[in-house]
Every structure is written in C-alpha cells, then in structure tokens.
Amino acid sequence: MKITTGRRAVQGMGVVLGLFGVTGIGMTHILFPGLHCYACPWAITVCPVGLVQNLVIFGTVPFFWVGAMIVYGVVAARGFCGWFCPFGTLNDLLSFRRARIRSSLSYGKFLILLGTLVGAWALTDTIFCKLCPAASLEASLPYLFLGVAKVNGPFLVHMATLGATLLGMVLIARFWCRYLCPMGAILALFNRVSLLHLEWNGAECTGCETCVDACPMGIDPRQEHDGHNCIKCGACTESCLPDSLQLRCGPRKAK
To answer: Nearest 5°: phi and psi at 57?
Structure first.
C-alpha cells in the first residue's frame, strides 16, 4: 500500500475521532493529538492548546498535559500533523500551490505558542480560542447552523481569521502548519527524538531534488527531516526514485 493511501485512511480516522460525538458519546479526558476544537458540538476529546490555557489561568500544575504531550511527541511528534490532525487534513486538501518555506517566518508558530501562554496568564482568558480558525470551522459555524450562535462581533472575528487562514492555505501549501500552528510548535519540540522519523542515505541520493518538489511543507527533506517543519508525511519518500529517503517507525540508527 502506498504511503499516501495509508495516510489518507489515517487522516480519515482523525476526522472520525474528532466528530465521534455525533454517536452520542460525551466528552472524555482524551487529549487530541492535533488541533481540534473541544467546543465543537460533536467533540469528545480535549484540545491541548485550549486545555493548557485553562491550566495557566487557574494556576494548575499540568502533569497530565505534559505527560500526554511527551507520549505524543515520542511516538510521532509532528507526524500527527501530517497523518492525523483534521485541520492539517484541510490544509492538505487546499494545497494547490507548493512553495519553498520561508525559514525565518516558520518560527512564528513558536511565537504564537508563547503569546498564547502569556495571554492566558496576563488576561486570564483563552485568547487563542477566540481567534483559532479551527474553532471557527468546528464550533462557530456549527453552532450558527444549530441556532445557538448569533452573528455578532466575536463571530465575525472568527470568520475573519478563518477566511484569512483559508486564503493562506490556498496560496501556500500547509500555510497554517508551516507558520502559525501552536500545536505544531509543541509537537515540533520532539521531532528529533520521535519514533516516527525519516532516514536519508546520502550515498544513494542522486541529487534529483524530486523530494524537495514533493514536500508540502516546502523544505529540503534530505537536510531538514529532523527539523521543526517536517511533518513526516512521507510524500518525499514516494517521490524518491533511488529510495534514499525512508519513513520508518522505531529506534533511530546511531549516526
């Protein structure tokens, strides 16, 4: 089975888990390994970004949150962005234009993560949730159609952030994942140690750069596969004719 086929199936599972509340199952204590709004009327999982803001606001030591993030990070790190996150899947569906990443701007996701934490502490409010485009799509719009939400100032702010994000996705493949996602920033901290990883054999590489053209994140997978921008989607491995790039799950080889 091709990696793309398997990845689409796993992405579908991510969407199903995200919306599993339609079955009547209520909210659980499971932290979703991606960006998925817990205010969604059909959510049964908790958004890590939303939860950590509340933990900061109430001054609670985040033992459970930290433990879950370590587990997710060691297992796949940003592989969850490429394989499971529903908002990442939306990014994929709108990836019409692949461009090289602007490396300096890609650190913006860490600034947003920092701003999210500082904002929660300083303003005692979940500021990011009020701007999050995933929340716009998964909570604001559904509640409007259900007759619960109204078109007011906060709703229009959500629509503006969603519209700007969707435009960015169309213009630049994986725009949100590259530059803005705080959940991606959290998982990126573990990219160099995760069990899911890319291996590159320089001796077999022909330098054709088909992997670079195939990468939706706009990086050079040969040099940046352990960096904070790689989502371990495996697109580069499928395009690599000499098989010098391999996506593997397990202990890393000693260098």
So the answer is: -60, -45
Task: Label residue 196 exposed, middle or buried (CB < 10 Å: 0-12, 13-18, 19+).
Answer: buried
Residue boundaries of the structural domains of the chain? 3-91+102-188, 196-244
Helical H segments across 140-234, by residue range: 141-145, 153-171, 175-179, 182-188, 210-214, 221-224
Scanning the structure block, which residue is given the tokens 């990442």?
88
DSSP state of 33: S
| 249 DSSP assignment | E
Averaged over successive runs of 10 residues, the pLDDT of the chain (255 residues) comes to 89 96 93 96 97 97 96 98 97 90 93 98 97 97 94 96 97 96 98 95 91 94 93 94 91 75
Reading the block at residue 152, the tokens are: 């007011």
If you classify domain 196-244 with CATH, what class do you get? alpha beta
